[in-house]
Amino acid sequence: MTDPTPNSPTKLSDPMRIFDRSLHARRRARAAAGFGEYSFLKKLAAEDIAFRLSAINRKFEHVLDLGAHDGTLARTLKADPIVAGRLGEIVSTDLSAAFGHQVADEEALPFPPQSFDLIVSALSLHWVNDLPGALIQIRRVLKPDGLFIATVLGGRTLTELRQCLLAAEEEIRGGAMNRVSPMMDVIDAAGLLQRTQFAMPVADNDARTVRYAHPLKLLSDLRGMGETAAFANRAGPPLTRRILMRALEIYAQRFSDADGRVRATFEFVTLSGWAPGPDQPVAKRPGSASVRLADALGVKERNVGEKTGHKG
User: Fold this and answer.
1) Structural domain of residue 58, as residue ranges?
2) What is the rounded distance in angstroms from the CA atom of residue 165 to the CA atom of residue 229?
């Protein structure tokens, strides 16, 4: 989610094109072979989606996993004793062919209308440039009364790294540019679902804290996940080693615990909505979308606390 070349304020030819999808696909492909070593966030998101689905007592005969990476989400759903019996065929897709799935771009889904009863996605849709357009396509390929659940990385993700890079570049250059990918917040997510005409749209968020022995291990994990930033406009001065090293010094000063380990925040924003169907409750008035997925699905909220297991 960081890039040595910044997001320039120069106006883009396409104002919706924040990310270079081709560059992201190449980085995703490079990460594919060793992705399992760095998939701890993907596993957390997959477990959470499985937990939410376990509360929904219905069959989903045709399932689509968007942005599957190494198939962690599909494996997690199939391993859940409650969820597995309710699922039929799972079609897994990814932006990169390197993961061995059907290649599919979330911005141009290659499926006919009303193809799936359930569409799930874990930590992939935050790379889409036109998320409203992608959500419209997702709703289009859902069958009536089909369900969509996705988890994306939210705006508080890497807040520590973002602050330190800005501070270091400002200190050394006298000005700074954003080098961490922009991401949505939970209110935006709920609004997008409503705008794209999902029934009963809801969203919630959950901040996870991962601790590292050194900030460099965080950067290594981001590369291993294929999550380093891929801005479409990379004009402007590059990130120098001097600035990066200073940013890591600031990181250790500002965000270390008593034992010397540093904190990194990853915010999960989970979106859920249904394709309109004849037997659904009447939609609420515009602007009244809930932002509590636990209520909508009838599940209990869990206090996950700090995630310190990935020590690296």
Assistant:
1) 21-158+182-210+266-297
2) 13
